[in-house]
Design goal:
The protein is α/β, with parallel strands linked by helices. It has helices at 6-16, 28-41, 51-57, 59-69, 87-96, 110-126, 156-166, 190-199, 214-223, 232-252, 257-279, and strands spanning 20-24, 45-49, 77-84, 100-103, 130-133, 140-142, 145-147, 170-171, 204-206, 225-230. Helix 6 (110-126) packs parallel to helix 7 and helix 10 (232-252) runs antiparallel to helix 11 (257-279).
Amino acid sequence: MAVQSLAEILAPAFDQRYGVPAINIVNDLTMENVLAGAVEAGSPIILQTSVKTVRSIGVNTLYQMWKAMTAGIEVPCALHLDHCPDRQVISDCLAAGWTSVLFDASQLPVEENQRQTIEVVAEARRYGAQVEGEIESITGQEDGIGSDDESRRQGLDVQLRYLEATGVDVFAPAIGNAHGTYKRAPILDFQRVSDLVAAHPVPIALHGGSGLSVEQFHDCIARGCAKVNISTALKETFMQSSLAFLKEAEAKGKWDPPSLFSSVGEAVRAMTVYYAGVFGSAGKA
């Protein structure tokens, strides 16, 4: 139990075909309640931090929050740096104690992406950490990183060369998924996941999970998507529950910050429990 490596958490999920929620937190309140939701659901959890969150809170402060909140925790959990093109931020987080990183070099030519990813994997291994990689940009922006333009998809042969050369522990292909709020129902290329896993059995990361249907989640997970990212839903839950509480507080003329924190925290916990149930990770801790 307690803090584990990304590989330790995803190996059984990949083998048994369930998905582990990988939820992007934004502050101490969301970190506390995502972890609490995982404990309530009896689910392993991957707590993700964006570069924006790392910079706004600070590497050391954020890690100390994580260390304090996971002391004695009863479910497997990992601390993951999401979409990071900045090698210095990756180095700082690995040195501080992050258990895994996503080196996002998808804007670079594949050859340069591959060369630098090999270096990042070697660096991570010195800390006993893992690396998620990608060679195709996921459409949409995540905390200011990314592009709204859909990137060109690479052939299976290119993906396999990258996987074999880099030794990344998790791979994030583009399958029609997108970051942010979907403007229309996405059409996913499920076969890309099946083809990748058949040719090179590696846990797949499904990005842009917020807004996918339960059926789409189940199909992707059954094909090998063991890590399922949730970011936009967390932000919406956090802000919408805050707004609803504040409107009610204004109507009543009662301004009690601890009650606000409790209300918002409960919404975040409930969201975490919901996704653990949908992804099949509930009870797997």
